[in-house]
Amino acid sequence: xxxxxxxxxxxxxxxxxxxxxxxxxxxxxxxxxxxxxxxxxxxxxxxxxxxxxxxxxxxxxxxxxxxxxxxxxxxxxxxxxxxxxxxxxxxxxxxxxxxxxxxxxxxxxxxxxxxxxxxxxxxxxxxxxxxxxxxxxxxxxxxxxxxxxxxxxxxxxxxxxxxxxxxxxxxxxxxxxxxxxxxxxxxxxxxxxxxxxxxxxxxxxxxxxxxxxxxxxxxxxxxxxxxxxxxxxxxxxxxxxxxxxxxxx
Length: 249
Known about the structure:
The chain contains four helices and 15 strands. Helix 1 packs antiparallel against helix 4. By secondary structure, the chain is an alpha+beta fold. The strands form two sheets. Strands 1, 3, 4, 6, 11, 12, 13 and 15 form an eight-stranded antiparallel β-sheet that branches. A seven-stranded antiparallel β-sheet has the order 2-5-14-7-8-9-10, with no helix packed on it. A hairpin with a 2-residue loop joins strand 3 (49-51) and strand 4. The protein has two domains: 1-19 and 226-243; 27-225, Exo-inulinase, domain 1 (Jelly Rolls, Sandwich), CATH 2.60.120. The chain starts with 6 loop residues before the first helix and ends with a helix.
């Protein structure tokens, strides 16, 4: 009895053996000094600019506004059920009236209005990373202490900040320069709007001189099938068997 394999069957076997991989849906290193990929809203919209290979806010050193941040939303990308937003963040200098160690630099997601969003950032004047949602809940403070006296280290120092948010499993991982902390169900709700999926996401400023570089968004719900070496070996053997069976026919 002869064993045959069709091309369609071979492709099906390959698809079944290939693992799903996350997809990078956005990244920008601002090498062209353009912020065409972003739309600004909220406070101090006129102070955002791309310069010196970075996206920067409040170049004019406007006063910190405690009531609402300014938003730079990524065009064409929305908050998915499981994503990561990350980038190199930096507080460039002091804020008028707030001292040399003052600064907030980070990200927002799930935004459906200027008063409805989730947010996370490096808070330099209190030496920690935080996250919270605009409507209800309480502030989530991580244990990611990052520096000594910020008046000495904020200028010219960049930190890699990342928030991975998984609405499916109610889990969020916050990372700063490779050190991370994960929060599970219950605590997850403190920092994430239940209706956040589908909203805008991007970077923030509270009227302070902050900068962003190498901003990237990874979507774990968008999959691409990439064959592993074992799968490729299986396909090679199948092709060899198929060719041999045809010669014998």
